[in-house]
Amino acid sequence: MDQTFMKELAAIVGQEYTLSDPESLAVYGYDSTPELESRPAAVVLPGTSDDIARIMALCSGAGVTVTPRGSGTNLSGGSIACNGGVVIQTSRLNRILEIDEENLTATVEPGVITSALHREVEGKGLFYPPDPGSMNISTMGGNVAENSGGLRGLKYGVTSDYVMGLTTVLANGEWLKTGGKAVKNVAGYNLNDLLVSSEGTLGIFTGIMVKLIPRPQAKKTMLVHFPELEQAALTVSHIIAARIIPATLEFLDKITIRCVEDYAHVGLPLDVEAVLLIEVDGHPAQVEDDAAGIRAICQKHRCSFFQTAATGDEALKLATARRVALSALARSKPTTILEDATVPRSCIAPMVKFIQQTAAKYDLTIGTFGHAGDGNLHPTCLTDERNKDEIARAHAAFAEIFDLAIEMGGTITGEHGVGMAKKKYLPKLVGEAGIRVMRGIKQSFDPKGILNPGKVI
Asked: Has domain 218-407 been given CATH number 3.40.462.10?
């Protein structure tokens, strides 16, 4: 990259926060997506939001592409600089700027770790529900860019349900402020929601205001064993049909169970086809009623064991079984392809069965876990990217899984985003008109095409 340009970058953030040596750039050539690698020409770590605006103005003037990046936990290639250029890494912007207990909002910088916000607000008796599996690593900026979900998505929704306002730097360095503390706001186009899930292609967030709610008074955590996978999947649908909405309703199949138990030793059974991890929260009386209703439904569907956590530590241990699923599976083979095909809840059982049949058809090992309560399944292929034939079979299998998800009225991604990895499937989901509208929006926000190019469309 031109030395004059590099000196101008360093003048904005400082030489120590301007990286261009090969070893540093190699670290930023990856995120959590398998098979994808592309090194940027430079990495900058701004310390203020004004730094980001100045960097964007400089890059816009020079026609240099920019990729925003948080912790690099992205699972669709969204934080890889596929066209080189500059990576803006936001980890230094990590302050919780305000917790407004009167208006029930929190305002944070994009580099705040998700679980750090959880701890801070829960200490005040408040609650920020979105809890992606990577919450101990992922940043709030990345969560908003990808519209992250999490284990509590069934009852509480996803990130977009909580973003009340954004401060965003546009491609040319200008500021855009959207939303705010007013609970009702229908003035003009809803640019706030448009920016959520834009995957870094429309702007870079420098301030994020989220809604908080009162912390639930009570909760119960349950682990249920099923000797038949289909009965576990049907149980999920029937719990929802009974008008019971758990905070968490998670599914693990036998491949995932065995990997988790080998990794975390949490006491999972090795002789069952599936387990459900269920958590209900709210008013103590409602929690007791919901737990009793869930037990009855599980027994009706021939569960072999029903466990209720007796203590907070035991509940945490059970929850760990689900939260470490990806880490546990990833130990099995050199490459882990984690997807997030999402279907209507009534289609969970046939989709899980289809995933198993597709794995057998292509001679693959696919473990399935996920947020079964909201239809967001994570079929995870354990493979080795050096085995080109097996990788080709894995991609063919996922193409069939995505096709069925779309036919069922579902989607190609429930929380991981499109990025590079799934943009080839997007036209089938949204159609030609959808792609045309998205391209028009991109052109309006970023006429030079410098913000996170090569992603989504």
From this structure: yes
